[in-house]
From TrEMBL:
Family: Belongs to the MoaE family.
Keywords: Molybdenum cofactor biosynthesis, Transferase
Name of the top EC class for this enzyme: transferase
Name the record gives this protein: Molybdopterin synthase catalytic subunit
Coiled-coil positions: none
SUPFAM superfamilies: MoaD/ThiS (SSF54285), Molybdopterin synthase subunit MoaE (SSF54690)
Biological processes, Gene Ontology terms: Mo-molybdopterin cofactor biosynthetic process
Gene3D superfamilies the record matches: 3.10.20.30, Molybdopterin biosynthesis MoaE subunit
Pathway: Cofactor biosynthesis; molybdopterin biosynthesis
Molecular function (Gene Ontology), one example: molybdopterin synthase activity
PANTHER family for the chain: MOLYBDOPTERIN SYNTHASE RELATED
Length: 240
């Protein structure tokens, strides 16, 4: 069977393609078997393939998941939220989750969670930092697997509602080039009480960095590097 595998970030750069056509000599293959075969076929990218997760039809697939021809497949390297793409402004059905290459507005995102019965509203704003130790960042570039990123953002909102019932959440993330001091992500939370608001906001950003397929590339004066998950072994399906 012939599989069409979408690639992102440093993995796409290493293999010099964003879509890989890969032939498998059987009618089905598990996610783990696919990674093993790809690592053997592309040894130059084996270290990146090994730590990546397979996504099937925009959901993270367990290692024993059977992949068949026609499935939408993506190989997701460690994430941590692009370039060269048409203008993007993708919204979830309820409008509270957004992936866009346009500048973000704190007021616009926060307005999505305002509620007359909520006494606490908190907006987290992530911006591009110039200096990290002695390393100077010129700008950042973000890339996303947009349909899956949106569904994962919605999943964060549902998870937050189950942990802190009644909480409202809205998240907008920018892709493409983001200059120094510009905003890359806004998370707005509103709850009945401030303790839940602080906790839910922190949970949202940590879960976003863990599981949402958005990648960050740091551009320096003398080079660049894709930045992925940096807190131990990466598992986007693990609980925080």
């Amino acid at each position: 069977m012939l599989l069409r595998i979408q690639l992102f970030a440093g993995l796409a750069e290493r293999l010099q393609t964003s879509v890989l056509s890969y032939s498998v000599q059987k009618s089905e293959i598990t996610a783990d078997e696919l990674k093993i075969e790809l690592s053997k076929t592309y040894p130059e990218a084996a270290s990146q393939i090994t730590v990546s997760f397979v996504a099937v039809n925009q959901e993270y697939a367990p290692g024993d998941y059977l992949i068949t021809e026609g499935a939408e497949i993506a190989l997701i390297p460690p994430v941590s939220g692009g370039d060269g793409q048409d203008s993007v402004h993708a919204l979830s059905k309820d409008g509270r989750y957004c992936i866009t290459d346009q500048p973000l507005s704190i007021d616009e995102v926060t307005s999505k969670v305002l509620n007359p019965n909520h006494g606490a509203t908190l907006s987290f704003v992530g911006t591009t930092r110039e200096m990290t130790g002695d390393q100077r960042t010129v700008h950042l570039e973000y890339e996303a697997y947009i349909p899956m990123a949106l569904s994962q953002l919605e999943a964060i909102g549902k998870d937050i509602d189950s942990r802190w019932p009644g909480t409202l959440c809205a998240i907008s993330h920018r892709i493409g080039k983001v200059d120094i001091m510009e905003t890359s992500v806004i998370i707005a939370i509103s709850t009945g009480h401030r303790e839940d608001c602080y906790e839910a906001s922190r949970y949202a950003i940590e879960k976003l960095k863990q599981s949402v397929p958005i990648w960050k590339k740091e551009i320096w004066d003398d080079g660049s590097e894709w930045k992925g998950h940096q807190k131990g072994p990466w598992d986007p399906t693990a609980s925080l």
